[in-house]
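#struct-pred

JT: dropping the chains for the assembly here, can someone run the whole complex?
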Amino acid sequence: MMKNYKMILAYDGGRYNGWQKQGNTDNTIQEKLEGIVSALAGCPIEVFGSGRTDAGTHAYGQVANFHMEWDGSEERLMDAINEKLPEDIGVLSLEEVPPRFHSRLSAKAKTYEYTIWNSKRPPVFERKYVFWCEKPLNVEKMQEAAKLFLGEHDFKSFCANKRMKKSTVRKIYEIHFHCTEDKITISYYGNGFLYQMIRILTGTLIEVGEGKRQPDEIPAIFAALDREKAGFTAPAKGLALKEVFYGERQEEYDTNY
Amino acid sequence: MMKNYKMILAYDGGRYNGWQKQGNTDNTIQEKLEGIVSALAGCPIEVFGSGRTDAGTHAYGQVANFHMEWDGSEERLMDAINEKLPEDIGVLSLEEVPPRFHSRLSAKAKTYEYTIWNSKRPPVFERKYVFWCEKPLNVEKMQEAAKLFLGEHDFKSFCANKRMKKSTVRKIYEIHFHCTEDKITISYYGNGFLYQMIRILTGTLIEVGEGKRQPDEIPAIFAALDREKAGFTAPAKGLALKEVFYGERQEEYDTNY
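RK: done, full complex below.
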């Protein structure tokens, strides 16, 4: 009998061209998974992700689903997929879900994390998962600016796709800063994110932290609806998809709980 | 004026042939540092480490010192070295120390950490820094066995160098287990460690955790003075030199504080 399986995936995106398979380029995470699942099933199977992640971006909790006939247990299926996966992609959990569940269409909200290494000490072990800013950043100013990102806005100025025809309105529920001696981790919890939106939001916050911009410039950036007005695109390797939410989404706005 | 500088170093040992330069092989961490420091000084300079680390073993806190004429600040020197180092080696701190300080000869004790990934979930981000044991290990039994390693012993059975002519007596002050959902980290604090000693101690503990050995077999392994009686050599990539101590060493014996 055809079953619908939901997986939670982790991957080190460093050597991949992102999640989504593409016409001409190769080496995407979706392709790796489809190859393995299709081989197990003996027929072509499509694996649906909750959303694309950019080339070089990581995931601690990407969600994907696929439909397959399988007589064994969920555990056996998870093991069989993990056995074939390269060591930089892993299935963390796998369970059967109702037939209508769809990783992308059913998703209510997502959390992404961006990690800035803000220290003179080099990030020897973290080097592939952080963006290294040596100069001290003013985190208070960054938090002040981040508050202005909260809520529902047209994020067109923070979208790298200039020919985007669909709505660029999104809602950010929470932005959370977690600081350690060397690291600033910013997590963004929202109902959806545009192409490179988090990297541009983060690049803008970094410029605020460096003193190149002031928090009170943010409203004008929104109003311009122009990508050129926002900050730089922070590198992909500092970004990770942390969690995808399918239940009720939280509607409170909060920075730095 | 000639000054003596002490550095604390972190390195990802994955692509190196260990700390110490060797006659014929290349690509050691010591060589990388000597090349950079010698170039800055304009003459050959030797960099002394607190001890060797094996090929593939990591360090969060290796200590090394060198003598050099330098007019600038400590910070400038540290920056100059870091600028030239590859991204998998980093100087975390650098300070001038008294002329007689020697990283190895002045060292009183060291802490090494061995990390076992003990989960069915693959260690996607930690894969290069852990040894993956899928089967659940009995940590209580491992702790029981580890207690028998504490104190002063002849560790000849846990030394990979069969032609070791010097004393194989060492003292372990503390062994600490830190367990999270997926990981078992064992830290060993002692006055010195023989060639591959921690990897063999850990391999023996893993065999205890798997139920292949019992804790009460440990005294007979010590008594045999025979490498063949101890467990396997756990892989280098799970091992890291965490800290080198130069002050008073702690003489209490303790597991799992």
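JT: nice. The mean pLDDT of chain A is 93. DSSP finds five helices and eleven strands in chain A.
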